Amino acid sequence: MKYSPNSPILLSSSLHVDEARKAISELVKELLEESNAIADPADIETVPLDQAIDRILAEDLLSPIDVPAADNSAMDGYAFAGKCLDTSAPEITLQVIGTVFAGKPYDGKIQQGECLKIMTGAVMPTGCDTVIPQELTIAQDAVQIQFKQHQLKLGENRRLRGEDLQAGKPAISAGRLLRPSDLGLAASLGIATLQVRRKLKVAILSSGDELCSLGTSLTAGSIYDSNRYSLSGLLNRLNLEIIDCGIVRDDPASLKEAFIEASSKADVLISSGGVSVGEADFTKQIMQELGDVGFWKIAMRPGRPMAFGILKSSTGQSPVRKTLFFGLPGNPVAVMVTFYQFVRSALLQLNGASQTEVPLTQAISAAPIRKKSGRTEFQRAILERGTDGKPTVRLTGSQGAGILRSMSEANCFVILGHNQENIAAGDWVDIALFEGLL
Ligand code: AMP
Ligand code: MG
Question: How many other CB atoms are there within 10 angstroms of residue 138's CB atom?
């Protein structure tokens, strides 16, 4: 069945956050399945490893080698043939016949009753399979060592060839949003370039007669356009190509022109403002002409009104181009919340990422929080360790949808589910951290 953002359920007056997310994901899936999809899976680039951070891996990365390439020592200690542990003697004494360093394999032979001093990472000499760590020896000098037999089993403190990765097996799967550890892993396999998805082109614009650009003086009743800056910050974190379409006035001709221009260049258009009840009729009319866009009233706070759908543009002979469109509410906090809840995962999905969600965790609420059942709320909060050592959150002051300071001071959202009611101090609540470590 063809999906439409204008289906009656999606236009209901209290669309559940989960239904909205599902509908967005369905539409993205449909777009990806179409042959003229906006983010063609064939759109792949080869980039050097040091430029691959935060890009999405386009192919399974197969390991060309075994890692480690040879059995090696996991400890600084003494390598020997472990079959000598098969004895009733409580203590074992071995003669030290040499030293093996990392990067310099030992090519001599070892006899029963002998051992080699070995450094961490050094290749296990032929005939050795066990390492007694330096600190477990009870006596040692340049010629012999002694240790208690029960402290060691055959094969211990040896890293086996291919233990991390086997040649020909996938080291990283396609769809991975590449992190520092992935780049390190690829480098450890000797891989210098990676195939990644091309960066999505995302256009942003702000709509509103009251908006002023930075560098101009505020006139009576006007405000500075902050949304484009929060949005470009959010998009930069996703390492996308941003097309800044500036401020557009609240008049049908300018809006229409701006939407046509943006959708002709971008895979995705994100606007803010102009979708609230007073202004929606006007925007709706334009959207009807340009594509299939629904005006949703989502049961959430902040961020109730939102437009979502596709804009179609045809350029001469070529087939109709489709641009995914998000019309976010104008309020500065609502912009960031709706981006986090709906846009971020859609962009990742559209670009082939396998993991599109931000992981949730939990913390104890330091104070009561008022909450009405029947809507999902995103409160801004600071996560800290409480005096009892447990993770604790407290809200950052006034939670109005226009109060950007509540976001700026926060380090996480407290997410209160659709059916949840008032929270008491000491209750556990779901949180989503703004920043990830890696
Ligand atoms: P709207 O959704 O257009 O009705 O806007 C809701 C509120 O957000 C109004 O107070 C607007 O002035 C404000 N607003 C809209 N767009 C922006 C923007 N780009 N930057 C800052 N505030 C905005
Ligand atoms: Mg407006």
Answer: 10
Q: Do the bridges between strand 61-62 and strand 201-207 make them parallel or antiparallel, or are there none, so unpaired?
A: unpaired
Q: Do 363 and 392 form a contact (C-beta atoms < 8 A)?
A: yes
Nearest CA to ligand 1 atom 17: 330
Neighbouring CB atoms inside 10 A of 125's CB total: 24
- Distance between CA atoms of residues 339 and 329, nearest Å: 10
Distance 213 CA to ligand 1 centre (A): 13
Q: Which two tokens stand for residue 73?
A: 């020592």
Q: What's the CA-to-centroid distance between 212 and ligand 2, angstroms?
A: 13
Cα 427 to chain centroid distance, Å, stands at: 28
Q: Give the amino acid at 319.
A: P
CA-CA distance, 24 to 377, in Å (whole number)?
19
Residue 278 pLDDT class (50, 70, 90 cuts): confident
113 Cβ contact partners less than 8 Å away, ≥ 6 residues apart? 84, 94, 95
Does the pLDDT value for residue 291 go beyond 90? Answer: yes
**Tokens describing residue 299:** 């049961």
Ligand 1 mean position, distance from CA 15 (Å):
22
